[in-house]
Design goal:
The protein has helices at residues 14-32, 59-76, and strands spanning 2-7, 35-40, 47-53, 80-86. The chain is of the alpha+beta class. Strands 2-3-1-4 form a four-stranded antiparallel sheet, with helices on one face.
C-alpha cells in the first residue's frame, strides 16, 4: 500500500486540483497497474492525499514498484511530495 500527501503549489482552484489529481491517478494506474483513490484532503486547495494499492506474490517486488511510482509522481507532475508511506502485508 502507498499513501502520498502531495503539495500542489500551482493549483488555483479545486477544478485545477481535480485535473492534477485525476492525471496522477490515471497515469499510476496505466503505468504501474495500481488501484488509486483520493482518500483525504478533498476540500484542501493546496494539498491532496492519494492512496494506492498493489497485490503481488513478492513483498520485495511490490515495494520496488511502489517506490518507482513515488519517483514517477515526483518527476512528472507539478507537485511536491509532502509525505509518502509504503506498507506491506503478507497473508497466508
Amino acid at each position: 500500500m502507498l499513501l502520498l500527501v502531495l503539495e500542489l503549489p500551482e493549483t488555483t482552484s479545486l477544478k485545477d486540483k481535480r485535473k492534477v489529481v485525476s492525471g496522477i491517478k490515471h497515469r499510476l494506474h496505466n503505468k504501474f497497474r495500481l488501484s488509486c483513490s483520493e482518500v483525504d484532503l478533498q476540500d484542501s486547495l493546496g494539498f491532496a492525499e492519494i492512496g494506492a494499492a498493489l497485490v503481488s506474490n513478492s513483498p520485495v517486488f511490490g515495494e520496488k514498484v511502489l517506490n518507482e511510482a513515488v519517483r514517477f509522481v515526483e518527476e512528472n507532475f507539478p507537485v511536491n511530495i509532502y509525505e509518502s508511506q509504503i506498507h506491506s502485508e503478507v497473508y497466508g
